[in-house]
Amino acid sequence: MNTYFKFLVIAISAFAIISCSSDDDNPQPVIPDGDYFNGVLILNEGGSAGGSVSFLGADRQEVVNDIFAEANDGQGPGLFLQSIFFDDEKAYIISNGSDLISVVNRYTFELLGTVDSGLSVPRYGTVLNGKAYVTNLVEFSTDQDDYVAVIDLETLEIEETVIVGGSAEYIVSIFGDIYIQNASFGNGNTISKLNPISNTITETLQVGDGLNSIQVYNQKLYALDSEGVKRIDLGTFTVETEINKPEALTSVSNLRTENDQFYYTSGTAAFTTSISSSELSSEAIFDYGSDSAFGSFYGFEVNEGQIYVGDAGDFTSNGSVFIYSLEGQLVKEFNVGLAPNSFYFQ
Hints:
Elements: H1 3-25, E1 39-47, E2 50-57, E3 63-64, H2 67-71, E4 81-87, E5 90-95, E6 100-105, E7 111-115, E8 122-128, E9 131-136, E10 147-152, E11 157-163, E12 171-174, E13 177-184, E14 187-195, E15 200-206, E16 213-217, E17 220-225, E18 228-233, E19 238-244, E20 253-258, E21 261-266, E22 269-274, E23 284-287, E24 299-303, E25 306-311, E26 320-325, E27 330-335, E28 340-345
Antiparallel strand pairs: 1-2, 1-28, 2-3, 4-5, 5-6, 6-7, 8-9, 9-10, 10-11, 12-13, 13-14, 14-15, 16-17, 17-18, 18-19, 20-21, 21-22, 22-23, 24-25, 25-26, 26-27
């Protein structure tokens, strides 16, 4: 082997070692394949022609509508889209008008499978230990038939149904247990605890009338009702603190939590209060002056210093999304699909 060739081999080997060492010490972030890995998914409930999903890019400058149909040869995700829940790279889109859950890759929106039997007006879902737990309202005339469907995420088959004994609406999982909001459409005042090992309701906690939101934050469960916010200790499953609603607000809805602040709505205005306060604030961050009879704050979310509002308008034409700063300044406005009801951040 001549001297030049030996030098070349040594140089290449050294470069390879340095490169490998650099990669190990400074791993590059893994960017998922797909057009929708960084931004906001907007769920549009839709009407008799079906719902849709919009995507707002990371720079919040442009919205792309109907991404489900675009990714699946024009096929839609069903009637009256209610919510989305996630498990790693999969998104589960609940259609309560079609009794259907569409499973897609959350970054490409390619359809991977469906849950198309055993559901009856499904509403919300959560994932725990390879299972999905999905609430079902069944008949609107009674809440005694409401149940949670337990779904095997490998087979997409319903393994079991758990009768709740009250309304089965929003559902969350934390510390290996599942909590169900037993209130819908302004009626109800309890929260149920479901044991996922026995698949039974083990405890029920009564809060105030008009329960409309529950949120998990900093290992606590918060519930918003007609009296204000209840902070619930999950170890004892008891109310440990109450944050009262001021008389100046006739009603409060849409509880959200971020950076030790509560965010909530009343009428067409949004409000914020520190979670350490004893009373909710009645000073509005902004009032966006919607003239929609039932569609104002149809969607509401707070994420990374911005407030997202979905307005359903007249429910017959496309809805609007407004983005506000935490100080109440309007940042952006977009047209999306019919009746935007929720936001999900990729």
